[in-house]
Design goal:
Blueprint (H helix, E strand, L loop, with lengths): L1 H6 L3 H25 L7 E10 L9 E7 L4 E5 L6 E8 L2 E8 L5 E6 L8 E7 L14 H5 L2 H15 L3 H14 L4 H13 L3 H14 L4 H13 L3 H14 L4 H13 L3 H14 L6 H12 L3 H14 L6 H10 L22
Helix pairs in contact: 4-5, 5-6, 6-7, 6-8, 7-8, 8-9, 8-10, 9-10, 10-11, 11-12, 12-13, 13-14
Length: 355
C-alpha cells in the first residue's frame, strides 16, 4: 500500500515522505534500545557500599575517585552516611577506582566494564584501619643532650662542610667531635655516612654499632646500620637491629622500610608487604622507591592490579626516576586481572634497591 501511495505522489514529495517514515522508525528503534539499557547500550551503572573489616559503616570522610587507565578523571563521589554510593553512565572501558578515608589504608581496584553485560555492577569495598598514630615532635638524640658544648660546635662545623660537599673536611670534623665525646651517636652516624659513600663499610658498621650502643633509641643510626647490613646480605643481623630500634622509636618509618627490605630478600614477601604498608601509613608521601618496592612484592604475590597501582604512584612521584622506563614498559603490557582469564602474562620482576 505504501508503494502504491508513493507512486501517486510527485517524486520530490515522495522522497520527503519516505525520509519522514525512516526518521519515525529510527526513533522508535532508539527508544526500544533505551528501554533495554541505554542508547546503543554503551554505558553502565555502578553502585555499592564502603565498609570496614567488620562490615561497619564509615559515616563520613570517604572519597571515591574513578579514573581511566591513562589518568583521566571520570567521577569523584562521596558515599552517604551508610557508605552507599552510585556512579551512573560509565562508558564501557576499564577504570581505576581509588577509595580513601581518614584513618584507613587507601584501596585501589580495577573496574572492567567491557565484559558485554548490561547489568549494573555492585561492589563492596572493605577498608582496613591504619595503626593509631600519636602526634610527635622532633626530639634530640639522647647523646645530643649530654655532649659537651665544644663537641657540639665541632659537630656543627662538620654538618656545614657536609652540606658544601667538602667530604674530607666533614670527615675530619666528625672525627674531632667523636674525640671530644666518644659516645656522640649523631657524630658517629655522620661519619658513617661518609664512610659508606667511600665504600668503607666495615668502618661504617663499627661506628654505627657504637652509636646504637650509646643511644639505642636514635633511629637514624639504627636505620643506617640496617641499610648497610642489608647491602652486605646480613639480613638476620639487620632484622635484629631494626626491631630493637622500633621498640624505642615505633614511629620511625625508615626502620620499617629497611625491615621490609630484609624480609623481602629472605623471601618473606607477606612480611615485607606489611612493613612497606606501615611506611605508607606513617608517611603518606614517602620516597617514590617505596612504591617501587611494593610493586615488586605485589607482582611476587600475583596481585597484578595492586602492582599496577603502585607503579602508577611511582611514576606520578618520579616520572623520570630510575625505575620510570622499566615501569612504563611493564604497564604497557599489564592488563587488569580477570577472573575468567586462563593465564596471566609473565611479568619480569622490577628491580628494587637492596638497601
Amino acid at each position: 500500500m505504501h508503494q502504491r501511495f508513493l507512486r501517486r505522489l510527485p517524486r520530490r514529495f515522495a522522497v520527503f515522505v519516505l525520509l519522514i517514515v525512516l526518521v519515525i522508525l529510527s526513533s522508535r528503534s532508539a527508544q526500544g534500545q533505551e528501554a533495554r539499557g541505554g542508547p546503543w547500550r554503551g554505558v553502565r551503572n555502578v553502585s555499592g557500599q564502603v565498609v570496614t573489616e567488620g562490615e561497619a559503616v564509615i559515616p563520613s570522610g570517604v572519597t571515591i575517585v574513578v579514573e581511566t587507565r591513562d589518568g583521566k578523571r571520570s567521577a569523584e563521589i562521596h558515599p552517604d552516611a551508610q557508605g552507599r554510593f552510585e556512579i551512573l553512565n560509565l562508558v564501557r572501558q576499564t577504570y581505576v577506582v581509588t577509595v580513601s578515608a581518614e584513618g584507613f589504608y587507601s584501596q585501589q581496584l580495577f573496574l572492567d566494564l567491557k565484559d558485554g553485560s548490561d547489568e549494573a555492577v555492585t561492589l563492596q569495598i572493605v577498608m582496613h584501619r591504619t595503626p593509631n598514630r600519636k602526634a610527635t615532635s622532633p626530639l634530640p638524640a639522647l647523646t645530643d643532650l649530654s655532649a659537651p658544648k665544644n663537641a657540639r660546635k665541632v659537630f656543627q662545623r662538620a654538618v656545614q662542610a657536609l652540606k658544601a660537599n667538602r667530604l674530607e673536611d666533614a670527615r675530619g670534623e666528625f672525627g674531632r667531635a667523636i674525640a671530644e665525646y666518644p659516645c656522640y651517636a649523631r657524630a658517629r652516624t655522620g661519619l658513617a655516612s661518609i664512610q659508606i659513600a667511600a665504600r668503607e663499610l666495615d668502618a661504617a658498621v663499627a661506628n654505627l654499632q657504637e652509636a646504637v650502643r650509646c643511644d639505642p633509641g636514635f633511629p637514624d643510626a639504627c636505620a643506617l646500620l640496617g641499610k648497610v647490613l642489608n647491602s652486605q646480605k646480613k639480613f638476620g643481623q639487620s632484622e635484629e637491629i631494626l626491631k630493637q630500634g622500633l621498640r624505642l622509636s615505633p614511629e620511625a618509618w625508615e626502620l620499617y622500610d629497611q625491615l621490609a627490605t630484609a624480609h623481602y630478600n629472605q623471601g618473606q614477601y607477606a612480611k615485607a608487604q606489611e612493613e612497606w604498608l606501615r611506611v605508607l601509613a606513617l608517611d603518606p608521601a614517602p620516597p617514590a622507591e617505596v612504591h617501587a618496592k611494593l610493586a615488586a612484592v605485589y607482582i611476587r604475590g600475583g596481585a597484578r592490579d595492586k602492582a599496577y597501582a603502585e607503579m602508577q604512584a611511582y611514576l606520578r612521584a618520579e616520572p623520570t626516576g630510575r625505575f620510570a622506563s622499566a615501569f612504563k614498559a611493564m604497564l604497557a603490557r599489564l592488563e587488569p586481572a580477570r577472573t575468567q582469564a586462563a593465564a596471566s602474562p609473565q611479568l619480569e620482576q622490577p628491580a628494587i634497591p637492596d638497601q
